[in-house]
């Protein structure tokens, strides 16, 4: 399915979502945010979809907010717009399916924060990132103030927010923010390989593990231990668990179905 600002393509068990405003470096638009929300919400209930891949068309992943339209909206309009962005971020974290960000070119501002909201990040070696909000007298939105300090600590996060300095993919890889760093020409190939590997894994286990890891930042050890116990009680009843045990005993590769 093709929308004006978002390309949606179902590739077997993988849902490909491509930001599609290349003339503006895929700056966000209300239509793009709505399209992402609809696509991810549909993927939640589509049993055939196991993994979601988020990427950008043209020269970059996303420049984030559209600077050309900034200053035209009042406070109430901005409040409503960011509310829709917040709904998208919360939906991404609530979705019990892995979301992979495939980044090339530049990911700036809320575009960078959209990447941080994904579960795994694969990036081209030449790609760059920046939290450019301070350059236009703004603060971070899209969850960056939540995600980044948890990944790299408050001092370094404040440095990146205050200075808006470009950050190389290599540095973020060394900091543990980026999972995989690949040559630009291999980005699509390696992203597809990773997505298919996850798509043929135990989908239900991935989804539950995602939820518990995300909860671990705000829950106590006691709460996480109990959540693990309750979830494991359910997981031992899944088809994937039974298949995994059978494959182990038969010394073969398991054929998981995400059930």
End-to-end Cα distance: 27 Å
Would you count the extended β strands for me? 9
Alpha carbon gyration radius? 19 Å
Shape: globular
The helix content is 40-55%
Broad structural category: alpha/beta
Discrete helix count: 10
Q: Average pLDDT value?
A: 93
* Proportion of residues in extended strands: 15-25%
Low-confidence stretches: none
Order of helices and strands: EEHEHEEHEEHHEHEHHHH
Primary descriptors:
259 residues; 47% helix; globular; single chain; alpha/beta
What does this structure look like?
- By secondary structure, the protein is an alpha/beta fold.
- Helices cover 47% and strands 15% of the residues.
- It has 10 helices and 9 strands.
- A 6-stranded mixed beta sheet has the order 1-2-3-4-6-9, with helices on both faces.
- A hairpin with a 2-residue loop joins strand 1 and strand 2.
- Helix 4 packs across helix 5.
- The mean pLDDT is 93.
């Amino acid at each position: 399915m093709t929308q004006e600002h978002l390309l949606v393509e179902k590739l077997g068990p993988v849902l490909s979502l491509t930001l599609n405003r290349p003339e503006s470096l895929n700056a966000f638009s209300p239509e793009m945010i709505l399209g992402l929300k609809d696509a991810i919400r549909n993927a939640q209930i589509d049993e055939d979809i196991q993994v979601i891949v988020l990427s950008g068309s043209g020269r970059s992943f996303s420049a984030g907010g559209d600077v050309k339209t900034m200053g035209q909206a009042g406070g109430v309009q901005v409040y409503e717009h960011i509310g829709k962005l917040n709904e998208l971020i919360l939906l991404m974290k609530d979705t019990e399916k892995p979301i992979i960000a495939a980044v090339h070119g530049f990911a700036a501002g809320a575009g960078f924060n959209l990447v941080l909201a994904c579960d795994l990040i694969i990036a081209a070696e030449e790609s760059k990132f920046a939290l450019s909000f301070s350059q236009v007298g703004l603060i971070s939105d899209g969850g960056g103030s939540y995600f980044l300090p948890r990944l790299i600590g408050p001092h370094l996060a404040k440095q990146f927010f205050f200075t808006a300095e470009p950050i190389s993919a290599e540095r973020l890889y060394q900091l543990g923010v980026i999972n995989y760093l690949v040559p630009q020409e291999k980005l699509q190939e390696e992203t597809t390989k990773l997505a298919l590997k996850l798509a043929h894994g135990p989908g239900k286990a991935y989804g539950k593990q995602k939820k518990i890891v995300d909860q671990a930042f705000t829950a106590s050890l006691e709460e996480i231990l109990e959540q693990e116990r309750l979830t494991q009680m359910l997981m031992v009843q899944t088809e994937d668990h039974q298949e995994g045990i059978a494959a182990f005993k038969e010394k073969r590769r398991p054929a998981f179905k995400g059930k």
